[in-house]
């Protein structure tokens, strides 16, 4: 089978997007996407054809491209991903931007629910002298994060536990989290990539705020005076999250919108009495 024929099969017969078809064919054939475009007449051997057909068929069934490739780019970093972790999304880069604006160069940073390590590793890549700790309740997720940290050469402390549980009385200049915030029963859970992602990392109770409540309630016990907590959340959750932060005694509470104009991150500052 020629490259052009394989791509026609994936797009015309299976209905894949051309860009996705090229990414999968590049992975199956060991060629670059540029080479595939430049040499549509190149032939695939039997093993390459079989690998591509399997990948394309799995994509047609809805499996995320990131899981099929085993990687996803985030904040300029190529991260390994697996079904044990959420797929890093572009809108989460706002959380990193906001944290970088508020943290001292050598400050202590805590990432709660790190998953693949995306946020923690992005921060460490931009602030090499920062002391970054990342926590997740899933050992499988931490294995992915650990592999990413080693491969990227970024020194991040990784701890297993439920939110603040492994931290004793440690305090941080910045706490960031992209926690589960989808409401139980939300129709998006049976659509698109979310069908394949770990449910525990997505669903935050009947209104999506259960984990956000827990994180905010204990934030004052783990923030240095003048420190910030920054939280990603879903559409329409900015007002209740601001209310949670204000009720916990945090000041300078604000929300920021992502590039789509959706209020995506809310943050506040802690001051000891």
Précis, in short:
With 273 residues, this protein is of the alpha/beta class. The protein has helices spanning 3-13, 18-29, 33-38, 46-60, 65-69, 93-102, 118-126, 139-152, 210-218, 238-247; strands at 71-74, 77-80, 108-112, 131-136, 157-160, 172-177, 223-232, 251-257, 263-269.
The biggest sheet amounts to: 7 strands, mixed
Our Rg estimate from Cα atoms comes to 21 Å
Structural class: alpha/beta
Note the beta-strand portion: 15-25%
Average pLDDT metric = 94
Terminal Cα separation, in Å? 71 Å
The secondary-structure element order is HHHHHEEHEHEHEEHEHEE
Q: What is the approximate shape?
A: elongated
Question: How many individual helices?
Answer: 10
| Beta strand count | 9
| Strand numbers in spatial order across the main sheet | 5-4-3-6-7-9-8
Helix content: 25-40%
Name the poorly predicted regions: none
Describe the model.
- With 273 residues, this protein is of the alpha/beta class.
- Strands 5-4-3-6-7-9-8 form a seven-stranded mixed beta sheet, sandwiched between helices.
- Strand 8 and strand 9 form a beta hairpin.
- The model has no long low-confidence stretch (mean pLDDT 94).
- The protein is elongated and about 70 Å long.
- Helices cover 37% and strands 19% of the residues.
- Helix 2 runs antiparallel to helix 4 and helix 6 packs across helix 7.
- The longest helix is centred in the N-terminal third of the chain and has 15 residues.
């Amino acid at each position: 089978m020629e490259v052009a024929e394989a791509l026609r099969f994936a797009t015309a017969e299976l209905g894949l997007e051309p860009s996705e078809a090229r990414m999968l064919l590049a992975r199956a054939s060991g060629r670059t996407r540029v080479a595939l475009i430049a040499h549509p007449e190149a032939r695939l051997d039997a093993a390459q054809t079989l690998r591509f057909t399997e990948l394309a068929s799995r994509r047609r069934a809805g499996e995320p491209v990131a899981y099929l490739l085993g990687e996803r780019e985030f904040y300029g970093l190529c991260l390994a991903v697996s079904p044990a972790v959420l797929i890093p999304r572009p809108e989460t880069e706002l959380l990193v931007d906001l944290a970088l604006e508020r943290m001292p160069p050598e400050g202590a940073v805590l990432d709660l629910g790190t998953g693949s390590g995306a946020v923690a590793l992005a921060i460490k890549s931009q602030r090499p002298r920062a002391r970054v700790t990342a926590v997740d309740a899933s050992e499988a997720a931490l294995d992915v994060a650990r592999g990413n940290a080693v491969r990227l050469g970024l020194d991040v402390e990784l701890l297993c536990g439920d939110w603040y549980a492994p931290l004793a009385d440690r305090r941080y200049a910045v706490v960031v989290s992209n926690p589960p915030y989808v409401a139980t029963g939300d129709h998006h859970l049976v659509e698109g990539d979310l069908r394949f992602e770990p449910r525990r990392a997505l669903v935050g109770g009947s209104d999506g705020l259960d984990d956000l409540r827990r994180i905010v309630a204990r934030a004052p016990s783990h923030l240095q005076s003048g420190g910030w907590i920054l939280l990603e959340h879903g559409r329409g959750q900015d007002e209740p999250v601001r209310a949670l932060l204000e009720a916990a005694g945090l000041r300078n509470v604000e929300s920021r919108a992502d590039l789509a104009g959706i209020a995506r991150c809310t943050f506040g500052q802690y001051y000891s009495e």
